[in-house]
Amino acid sequence: MATCLSQMYHDHARGLASGYAKFETFPIWNLPLDHPVNIAYEAATADLDDVNMIDPFHLAAHGVQTVNYNRDVEIFPVLSRLFEEILGSSPYQSPTDMGVNMAGHCISDDEACREASKQEVIRRYYKALVAEKREMTDPVQSERIALLMSKLGIDREDRPVVPPTLKLAKSTKAPAAAIELPDGTIELGKTSELLGCCSAMLLNALKRLAGIDSGVDLLAKESIEPIQALKTRHLGSRNPRLHTDEVLIALAVSANGDDNAARALAQLDSLRGCDVHTSTILGSVDEGIFRQLGIQVTNEPVFATKSLYRKR
Fold first, then answer.
1. Terminal-to-terminal C-alpha distance of the chain
2. Segments forming the whole domain that contains residue 62
3. Cβ contacts of residue 238 below 8 Å, gap of 6+?
4. Which Gene3D superfamilies does this UniProt record tie to the protein (predicted)?
5. Handedness of CA 34, 36, 37, 43 (dihedral sign)
6. What does the pLDDT read at residue 268?
């Protein structure tokens, strides 16, 4: 905003007529204040202390209730005064007037938007929990989002992949992971001597999508052990288990001569948009792979090890 107003001032000084408007998707002005889409915006900006509110200037000027947020409402008197100084009069009577957001008119399935928004709030909650755990800060953001979840009538276990993850982690006493596939099926992954839980989960999901029997090993033990030896003997790794990037490379190599591996590898694009939950905080490698695959991941705010120092 400051950049635009500065440019307007200089244009005005040079005799050029210019104006200012903004495109801001959220909050959506013509949805109710308590609509899950707008509440999801609050959850996404919990670190900025943004709070949705009825635009009092719009209500006074037009007699219509619209939704805006605290920063826009607080700065509007200053903005209006600047317009008056630069242009002679303010072209807007409210913060909402400045926007060109038509997103609210594009919703074709309100129920789907509501459900997606609730899931986004839960994801933001877990993200805040993990950030606070890593940075050893007070639970300010997570508590703020917890209040929003209470307003929506949801809790963390309303995320379908959470309960099966926690159940598996409890039964195995080791890190576990779960993924929800496009058809709603939940596939699990547990920690073993050869694979980390995310790697196991990834292979199980690909097998399900490719229609391969769950008992089939996509990667032979003989192909995994040399990679483990390389990691621990030559690369200084203390963890012999294969991470997701190593598993995918091994799968790509195997696909050259194994039809099952090739079929599984061909299903990678089907994972885009899927949801994953893990019982421990992921390392940067697994996080990066899931991000590249377009998978939405949440983690319990628990470290996988008790090491004093951890690689980010």
1. 34
2. 1-105
3. 232
4. dip2346 domain like, Domain of unknown function (DUF1846), C-terminal subdomain
5. positive
6. 98
